[in-house]
Each structure stands twice: as structure tokens, then as C-alpha cells.
Design brief:
Layout lengths: L1 H11 L3 H14 L10 H14 L15 H9 L2 H26 L4 H14 L12 H18 L4 H15 L9 H10 L5 H31 L3 H8 L19 H4 L1 H19 L6 H17 L14 H13 L3 H5 L1 H13 L8 H11 L5 H8 L3 H14 L6 E3 L5 H6 L10 H7 L2 H11 L3 E4 L7 H10 E7 L2 E6 L1
Parallel strand pairs: 1-2
Antiparallel strand pairs: 2-4, 3-4
């Protein structure tokens, strides 16, 4: 592996500062290799990955509502350590691709390239925006950047444009909001080309090639899930059910008329269109790079605010273009140095308006140093992530000893860490209580438990969310142990 990485770096001939940056990023990622099984999304990904390893069909046999590529990577990883390791390698490769894109956009401004690449590397690594977590955003920005790099450096013939469309689709198969980066290049072509019949025809053909490439990976997934007999489940889970996601953080608006309910979304779309209109009318006095980056940022901001959820990892999607625009301020000596402040302010205003969360960076590393130097115990280290983490490990230890690998278990709660730790699976398709709340019911879950009777049912201290499960416990299970307030029930 190290020989292959060295050969790759030799081929692309990175300067010393890029190698130093990659070394720094790798060092900053070392604490993530020692993180416990605690982060809810990662636990879902790993649990679905185990389902794939067991031959269970995604969406039909085991469920979450993202496209399949992240779960496939989790399946390849098999455990949290390798999941983080794959993320680290992917992130390092993404930084290299981003550096190459910056070099292409600004071949004569090494200061801008350095500032942008360092900014990008740090923002996609530090815990501030959950750079340490294996979320879809960190995986999807790599193919998007590579797609744009290809379109900037290669002849815009059928093959190259088609491949660029495939790369954008790969990003979309990690997470759907990434497809909002797809219009960036088309709008850019329109704005930077003389709009006569010949050029419009050329743009139309290139757009067709791009769309064709974009469609192919999605059509392949449709075919795969069709032959698995779960195409309808796939379309519902990864696409249709995410429509409701747009208003999921404003549940009180669900009953309101369409226009009232979606007014914030329409206002944001209007801001994007207004920004593009201004760029179009001022395109003759702006550089192609500035136009491209601003379009990219506008589309990205629309994507990260789709659901109005305040999760910081959503902001990773706008880090590439924002990093370059920030570098404008420090490395350009033109009017665009000042103009860059406008899209940058819009980007910084967004997390303020929507009250995005953030995660402290310094305590994250100080905690790891204390653990690595023996100043705190493993138990203290686990508990520092969440008070529920030590309990999850205790429950997992009990299950690992008491149940066969093929035994099904059922665990209440919204974080399926016990499934991921034990590599055991639930009897049904849902791995967390919020899935049942959103897409099923307690009655359906109780009926499933009665029919399948998993070997163990674990009721975490907060108790069963669904009263119907209590009835199943009384009829078919016996309480055999209590650990940290959690009840462990075994079939009679």
C-alpha cells in the first residue's frame, strides 16, 4: 500500500508543501482511529454494511434512506477502524485532487493555491465540521472535484464530458444533495460562451453527454436492485422518502399549503437565481474562475440548507469552493479580492441564520492526548464521548459471549451501536427507533418480534419507546440480566 501511495505521489510530482500538508492531515486523523463506537450515523452505516456482508438486500431487508455507496464502503470496511482508515485515505486523495484543481485554475498564483489547499485540508479534517466522522459529504466531494478538474483540463469531447457526468453521479450515490453541484458547469458554460446558435448547440450536446454519464450509474443501481427484488424499496428509501426530509425540521408546517410550507425553500432558490443573474450581466468584467466558484458556492449553499437541519457535516459540501474564495482575500491583487467578500459573507451567514452546530476542536485532541499518555483510563475515554458509550460496550460484551454470530438481537434506542459492535443484526429492516417512528409503527414492530423472536431483546435505560414491545416481552421472554440500567431479555 505504501509503495502504491509513493508511486502515485511521484507520478503527480507534488511539491514539498503538499507532502507536508498530507503528513499533517494524517497526524490530525490519528485520534479518529481510536474513537469508540458512538456516533449514530456511523453506527447505522456499519450495521447496514454488516447486512450487506450477510447477503441481505439493502432497503428491502435492512433500511436507511441514503443511496448505497456509503453502505458498500462500510461493508468493505467491516469495522469502525477500517471505516476511518478508508476515510483517511480517501480524504488525502481528495486533498491532492483539490490541489490539482487549484493549480489548474490559478497556475501562476502559488500563494493562492497554498492557502486554498491548506484551508480545504484542515476544514475537511478537523472536528469543527465533523471532519473526523465518516459521513457521506467527505466521500462525495472527491468525485465532484475530480469531475470539475476533468472538465477544466481536458478537451470537452464526448468521452471526457461523459466521464465527468459519471463522477457527479458517483457523488450523488453517496448522498443526493451533491447532485445540486451538477448544474454548476452547465451554467458556467452558458455564462462564459458567446450565445450564438453554434455555441448553444455545442452547450446542448455537452450537457447531453454530461446527463448521459450522470444517468448511467443510477441506471446500474436500478438494475441491481431490480434483480434483487427491492427496486421499489430502493426508490422509496433513497429518493421519494427524502422529499419529506425538506421540511423535517419544521414539522409544524407539514399541514400548511404547498407555497406557505415551501416558502423558505423558494426564497433560497430565488437568492441563487438572483446571484446567477448578477453574474450573467457582469460576466464580461469578471474572471471565469470567479464566475465558476461563485456559481458553485450558490448551488452548494442551496444544497446544504435543503432540510434546514443544523448538522455541521452538511457544510463540508461548500468547503472546496469556499476555501478558494477565502484564498482570494489573501492572495489576489484585483477587484475580485474585494468581490470575494460577498459570496464569503453569504456562506458564513448561512450557518448563523440556520443555527448550525459545531464541535470543539482543541478538547477533542487534548482528550486523546490524555488517553494516549495514560492520564485517563479507557473507561473515562469512552464516557467522554457520551455517557451511553460504556453501556453500549458492556452490552456488546455480553451479547458477544452469550449469542451465536447467526443469532438475531433487538435493541431499543436511536443509536445502533450494539449491532455494530457485536456484528449482529436485528430481525427486521429497521436498525433505530427513529426509523420506526418515521416509516413504520410500534404495532408493526411488535408483530415482527412475535413472528421472529430474536434471541435477545435489550431495553436500554430509557425504556421501550413502543408499549406494544412490552407485551411481546411478557408473552415470550424472560428477564435474565440488568446492566447499567439496561434490561436483557431472552426467549423462553
Amino acid at each position: 500500500m505504501l509503495k502504491k501511495i509513493n508511486a502515485f505521489l511521484t507520478k503527480i510530482e507534488p511539491p514539498k508543501w503538499v507532502i507536508i500538508l498530507l503528513a499533517v492531515i494524517f497526524i490530525l486523523r490519528i485520534p479518529s482511529f481510536f474513537e469508540p463506537y458512538y456516533y449514530g450515523d456511523e453506527m447505522v452505516y456499519l450495521t447496514l454494511g454488516q447486512g450487506i456482508r450477510h447477503g441481505i438486500a439493502l432497503y428491502g431487508g435492512i433500511f436507511d434512506n441514503k443511496p448505497p455507496l456509503l453502505y458498500i464502503i462500510a461493508a468493505i470496511a467491516g469495522n469502525l477502524y477500517w471505516f476511518k482508515a478508508i476515510l483517511a485515505i480517501w480524504n488525502l486523495a481528495t486533498i491532492v485532487i483539490f490541489w490539482k484543481l487549484c493549480l489548474t485554475l490559478f497556475p501562476s498564483n502559488s500563494k493562492l493555491v497554498k492557502i486554498a489547499t491548506w484551508t480545504f485540508g484542515l476544514l475537511t479534517t478537523l472536528p469543527l465540521l465533523e471532519g473526523n466522522i465518516a459521513n457521506a459529504e467527505l466521500f462525495m466531494i472527491g468525485p465532484t472535484i475530480l469531475s470539475f478538474y476533468l472538465l477544466w483540463t481536458k478537451k470537452l469531447n464526448f468521452i471526457n464530458t461523459f466521464l465527468a457526468g459519471i463522477l457527479i453521479a458517483i457523488a450523488g450515490l453517496f448522498k443526493i444533495p451533491s447532485v445540486f453541484d451538477a448544474p454548476v458547469i452547465v451554467v458556467f458554460w452558458v455564462m462564459t460562451t458567446k450565445l450564438d446558435f453554434k455555441n448553444l448547440r455545442t452547450i446542448f450536446l455537452r450537457t447531453f453527454y454530461l446527463i448521459l454519464g450522470f444517468a448511467i450509474p443510477f441506471l446500474i443501481t436500478f438494475a441491481v436492485f431490480y434483480f434483487q427484488g427491492v427496486l421499489k424499496d430502493y426508490i422509496n428509501a433513497a429518493f421519494l422518502q427524502n422529499v419529506g426530509y425538506l421540511s423535517s425540521f419544521r414539522p409544524g408546517d407539514v399541514q400548511k399549503p404547498f407555497l406557505i410550507r415551501n416558502l423558505p425553500l423558494l426564497i433560497r432558490a430565488g437568492i441563487v437565481l438572483l446571484g446567477m443573474a448578477i453574474l450573467f450581466f457582469r460576466r464580461k468584467v469578471l474572471s471565469k474562475q470567479f464566475i465558476f466558484l461563485t456559481i458553485w458556492l450558490l448551488c452548494g449553499l442551496f444544497a446544504v440548507t435543503l432540510s434546514e437541519r443544523p448538522y455541521p457535516h452538511y457544510l463540508i459540501q461548500i468547503v472546496p469552493e469556499l476555501s478558494i474564495l477565502i484564498a482570494f482575500i489573501f492572495a489576489l491583487e484585483s477587484i475580485e479580492q474585494s468581490l470575494a467578500i460577498i459570496p464569503i459573507c453569504l456562506a458564513f451567514l448561512t450557518p448563523v441564520v440556520y443555527k448550525f452546530w459545531y464541535y470543539p476542536t482543541t478538547p477533542y485532541y487534548l482528550r486523546f492526548i490524555k488517553f494516549a499518555t495514560g492520564q485517563i483510563t479507557k473507561g473515562q475515554y469512552l464516557a467522554s464521548f457520551s455517557k451511553e458509550v460504556p453501556l453500549s460496550y458492556q452490552l456488546a460484551s455480553f451479547i458477544t459471549v452469550s449469542a451465536n454470530r447467526s443469532d438475531k438481537i433487538y435493541v431499543t434506542g436511536d443509536t445502533p451501536s450494539v449491532y455494530a459492535l457485536t456484528r449482529r443484526l436485528p430481525p427486521g429492516k429497521f436498525v433505530a427507533d427513529y426509523h420506526i417512528h418515521d416509516y413504520s409503527s410500534g404495532a408493526n414492530e411488535a408483530q415482527l418480534l412475535s413472528a421472529s423472536l430474536p434471541h435477545f431483546i435489550i431495553i436500554r435505560p430509557e425504556g421501550p419507546v413502543f408499549p406494544e414491545i412490552t407485551q411481546v416481552l411478557r408473552q415470550s421472554y424472560v428477564l435474565i440480566s440488568e446492566i447499567g440500567g439496561a434490561e436483557i431479555w431472552k426467549t423462553k
